[in-house]
């Protein structure tokens, strides 16, 4: 009987399922893992939420380890045909700033015309370095940047609607006009702008997936657990970047 060269034998064994003493499941595990990866279609978009200087360690409203999402989002951007970036873009003296309310401190709450508002440190003020996108964020496929929070009297967490729940950013119409029916959400912070974006996307009829390890949270008084509970209840899917890349 003619013996096959070792390399050819190993290649044939992998193709035919020969175990080589490892078991068939071991032979097929890598191929199965690759086959199970999600592949965003041309009708899907990545929304990179507020990856800005103000939300990383050196910023005015730092999200713990916020800068860690940058290389993950850069890698994710390479597997999407459609990419959207959002950017917090507040006026000086914005109504959501604690400094705009006498006697109030950051992370306390107050009542504004549209309801209860968390008060934040001054952050992401228009035209400042603090408001710029992180310098290491590289998303060359991004077609649109949605700036939000520029109404001085209304905060805006979601990429779709401002906090008054009436004013829209125009993103939904843009995505619908492009035939986008699925959005993957990543960025800062999980429990505020990411969650509000995901919940609004779901309410608008988009299939919505949040990439957990491509986000970081503020986690203010249990806000992270509450956000995930609500997102899950509304049908938002929770995945990892390894499901895509």
Describe the protein in words.
- With 245 residues, this protein is an alpha/beta fold.
- The protein folds into 2 domains: 1-36, no CATH class; 39-243, Rossmann fold.
- It contains 6 helices and 8 strands, in the order ααβαββββαβαβαβ.
- It has helices spanning 6-16, 24-35, 69-77, 171-177, 190-203, 223-233, and strands spanning 44-49, 83-88, 109-112, 115-118, 142-148, 182-188, 207-216, 237-239.
- The strands form 2 sheets. The chain has a 6-stranded parallel sheet with strand order 5-2-1-6-7-8. Strands 3-4 form a two-stranded antiparallel sheet.
- β6, α5 (190-203) and β7 form a beta-alpha-beta unit.
- α5 (190-203) runs parallel beside α6.
Give a short synopsis of this structure.
The chain is α/β, with parallel strands linked by helices.
Average pLDDT over all residues = 89
Question: What percent of residues are in strands?
Answer: 15-25%
| Distance between the amino and carboxyl termini | 44 Å
Structural class: alpha/beta
Helix and strand layout, with pairings?
Layout: H1 6-16, H2 24-35, E1 44-49, H3 69-77, E2 83-88, E3 109-112, E4 115-118, E5 142-148, H4 171-177, E6 182-188, H5 190-203, E7 207-216, H6 223-233, E8 237-239
Parallel strand pairs: 1-2, 1-6, 2-5, 6-7, 7-8
Antiparallel strand pairs: 3-4
Helix pairs in contact: 5-6
């Amino acid at each position: 009987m003619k013996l096959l060269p070792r390399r050819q034998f190993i290649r044939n064994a992998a193709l035919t399922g020969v175990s080589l003493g490892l078991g068939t499941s071991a032979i097929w595990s890598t191929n199965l893992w690759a086959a199970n990866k999600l592949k965003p279609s041309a009708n899907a978009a990545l929304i990179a939420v507020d990856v800005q200087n103000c939300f990383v360690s050196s910023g005015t409203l730092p999200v713990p380890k916020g800068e860690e999402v940058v290389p993950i989002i850069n890698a994710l951007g390479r597997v999407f045909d459609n990419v959207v970036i959002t950017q917090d873009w507040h006026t000086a003296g914005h109504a959501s700033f604690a400094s705009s309310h006498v006697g109030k401190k950051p992370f306390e709450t107050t009542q504004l015309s549209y309801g209860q508002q968390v008060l934040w440190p001054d952050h992401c003020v228009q035209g400042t370095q603090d408001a710029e996108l992180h310098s290491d964020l590289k998303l060359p496929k991004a077609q649109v940047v949605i700036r939000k929070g520029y109404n001085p009297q209304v905060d805006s967490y979601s990429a779709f609607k401002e906090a008054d729940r009436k004013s829209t950013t125009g993103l939904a119409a843009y995505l619908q006009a492009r035939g986008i029916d699925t959005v993957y959400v990543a960025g800062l912070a999980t429990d505020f702008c990411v969650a509000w974006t995901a919940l609004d996307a779901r309410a608008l009829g988009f299939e919505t997936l949040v990439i957990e390890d491509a986000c970081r949270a503020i986690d203010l008084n249990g806000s992270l657990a509450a956000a995930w509970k609500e997102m899950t209840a509304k049908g938002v899917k929770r995945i990892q970047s390894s499901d895509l890349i």
